[in-house]
């Protein structure tokens, strides 16, 4: 699914809450403390705990290697997120996370 945003600034809702990824190559969900659950796309802009921004890849605070077997695991974390509502054809809309900030 492709999402096209118009040129120029797009207002985002800034929220704190809990995010978790579903698995390798897929997105996840963000549940705002005071707000809706939002879709986290598989490729999302994110900043690490040092404030360095990344485009794509797995947000380090949400995805890590399990020391017991070396496999990647989705651990989830409290994060700050910027999300917006995306309109869908035929009516309706849903919240989509545009960036995450790891603690």
UniProtKB/TrEMBL annotation:
Organism: Microbispora oryzae
Source superkingdom: Bacteria
Name under which the protein is recorded: Uncharacterized protein
């Amino acid at each position: 699914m492709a999402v096209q945003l118009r040129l120029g600034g797009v207002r985002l809702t800034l929220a704190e809450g809990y995010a978790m990824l579903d698995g390798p190559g897929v997105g996840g969900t963000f549940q705002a403390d005071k707000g809706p659950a939002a879709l986290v796309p598989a490729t999302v802009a994110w900043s690490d705990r040092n404030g360095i921004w990344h485009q794509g890849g797995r947000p380090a605070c949400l995805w890590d290697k399990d020391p017991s077997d070396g496999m990647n695991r989705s651990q989830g974390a409290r994060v700050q997120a910027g999300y917006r509502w995306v309109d869908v054809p035929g009516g309706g809309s849903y919240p989509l996370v545009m960036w995450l900030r790891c603690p």
